[in-house]
Predict the 3D structure of the following.
Amino acid sequence: MLVKTFGSAVYGVEAITITIEVNVSNGQNYFIVGLPDSAVKESLQRVESAIKTNEYYMPRTKLVVNLAPADIKKTGSAFDLPIAIGVLGASEQIEEPERLSNYVIMGELSLDGSIQPIKGALPIAIQARKEGFKGLIVPKQNEREAGMVNNLDVYGVTHINEVVAFFKNENSLQPVIVNTREEFFSNQYEFEFDFTDVKGQENIKRAMEIAAAGGHNAILIGPPGAGKTMLAKRLPTILPPLSLLEALETTKIHSVAGKMPENSSLVSKRPFRSPHHTISDVALVGGGGIPQPGEISLAHNGVLFLDELPEFKRTVLEVMRQPMEERRVTISRAKVAIDFPANFMLIASMNP
């Protein structure tokens, strides 16, 4: 029997809906096709263990899992849950498998069937709403982040049994309700460091205020212990608060990079990133085999602080030229080109 479930793959800060087709037929062996990477190929072992541990039946015949569109590379372990639910549907352990097509399902499975958090829950939720899905099923740790999207039922789950019971109408999972405005305004003005802590230093404070007001880049030159790092750390507290649109944009980047604090829903404060001077070009601007946002994108709508500027490698400083002008960075690979936003304020410090 052929059953389709739906998942999502994140590219850059956008998501693409992936159709997971599971077919159980006569024959032998399990196959997973559709350009899966190693983590996706290994999912069949996790799925089999989770299904057997929870006393469901794993088909002993030929099992083919296809991730469509088949020409896009699928990465990561978040496809475990939709594959497992597809297997249970195709082996007729879930009645009314056509209900599965109303939901996007994402989650990494443990061997005992518990569900681990994923990256990129916010872009996945935005794409699911755009394509008219009724709901989204994600791990409990990601529910508040995905719940920021309105007109979409978001369900947080902790175990595969909850998902199976939901599709069998045996339990009433409640969609999470997030008050976006309340989340946005609740901790916008709570800071660990605050500009009001700085005593004296009137000249430099005036210069920092002018830089903050105009979004100008600045370099601080002074002897060790003069207060350069202390002032830079406190700069985000005098920047204008994020607008809701900026907060969502910043949250998307942090979500894709897996830098969201657990059970949080929104980045409501301007980010402050301070990479060490041994950082590589790729770590700063983004990239890698599977392109990920770098420090300049994580500092989007906030402050990038380069402490001890002359200690940074020349190539690292050179690759920042274009992103600083264009306010975005394009990572090009043989088969894909991905844009990451990079609109940040650059603050640097050095000794004379």
Q: What stands out?
A: The CA atoms of residues 25 and 62 lie 5 Å apart. The longest helix spans residues 202-214. The chain has two domains: 2-167, 183-350. The two ends are 73 Å apart (CA to CA).
